[in-house]
Amino acid sequence: MAQFFSLHPEQPQPRLIRQAAEIIRGGGLIVFPTDSAYALGGHTGDAGLLERIRRIRGVDERHQFTLMCRDLSEIATYARVDNSQYRLLKATTPGPYTFILEGTRELPRRVLHPKRKTIGLRIPEHAVVSALLAELDEPLLSSTLLLPGEDLPLTDAEDIRDRLEKQVDLVIEAGFCGPEATTVIDLTTGAPVLIRVGRGDLAPFGLEAE
After folding, report:
1. Share of the chain residues as helix, strand and coil, in percent rounded to the nearest 5
2. pLDDT band at residue 14 under the 50/70/90 scheme
3. Helices (H), 103-164
4. Is the pLDDT of residue 31 over 90?
5. What's the pLDDT band for 207 if we cut at 50, 70, 90?
6. What confidence tens digit (pLDDT) does each residue in 49-78 have?
7. Contact predicate 107/44, CB 8 Å
8. What is the pLDDT of residues 128-163, one digit of tens each?
9. Number of Cβ atoms within 10 Å of the Cβ of 60
10. Cα separation of 87 and 89, whole Å?
11. What is the dihedral of CA 28, 34, 38, 44, to 10 degrees?
């Protein structure tokens, strides 16, 4: 049965943040709010956790996972970033964007896309996630909480607990979390390529939604 924490959206309780971090370090799978939609997350190096997320999402080994990072220096540890990519990242983070970049050897191969060797990277603008990342002192492996056959991510923490209470270890609630996922931008080919339209504005990348 999943635990359920209610956190203040702007000043999350340190005691609950510490408990959530311990659940993650122990191999637990959590649901947490972000600056876009709710997400599934856990420890980066845990192979069993990857399979749990894939089962919930109904995706295969080609699913592109995302690392939530505290800052740009952490992104540069786990992805290859050139000067032009860095400028784009600096101008648009933190915020509701996921960037596809080539992963470095700091990452376990199993979290990378099996063919492209890429990883999604993002720096969320949400006090709960920021506090959790600071407590963990490392990135959080994540995936949008979008269930098979549904068009939009789940938005209500109580509903999430009812539907996933036997599949996750913790649900974190911190006020309203909207239905829009991140905007996904692929930066691996030079010019930015739009992969998914989401909450993030496309203007900084010179892109338009089709």
Report:
1. 30, 20, 50
2. very high
3. 127-136, 157-164
4. yes
5. confident
6. 999 999 999 999 889 999 999 999 999 999
7. yes
8. 999 999 999 999 999 999 999 998 898 899 999 999
9. 8
10. 5
11. -30
Q: Is residue 55 within a helix (H) or strand (E), and if so which, with residue range? A: helix 47-57
Confidence of residue 195 (pLDDT cuts 50, 70, 90): very high
104: tokens are 């470095």
Cα distance between residue 181 and residue 63, in whole Å: 15
Residues 6+ apart with CB under 8 A from 205: 88, 92, 185, 192, 194
Question: Which residue in the block uniquely carries the two structure tokens 């969320």?
Answer: 124
Q: What is the pLDDT of residue 45?
A: 79
Cβ pair 36, 199 in contact under 8 A: yes
Kindly report the number of other CB atoms within 10 A of residue 110's CB atom: 14
Gyration radius of the chain's alpha carbons: 16
The Cα 37–Cα 57 span in angstroms is 14
Residue in this structure with the two tokens 């203007």, named with its chain if needed: 203
Strand partners of residue 41 = 30, 142
Q: Is 28 exposed, middle or buried (0-12, 13-18, 19+ CB in 10 A)?
A: buried
d(CA 167, CA 96): 26
d(CA 101, CA 195): 13
Cross-strand bridge partners of residue 118: 102
Alpha carbons 103 and 79: distance in angstroms, whole number: 4
Beta bridge partners of 98: 184
Place of tokens 């635990």: 3
What pLDDT does 170 receive?
98
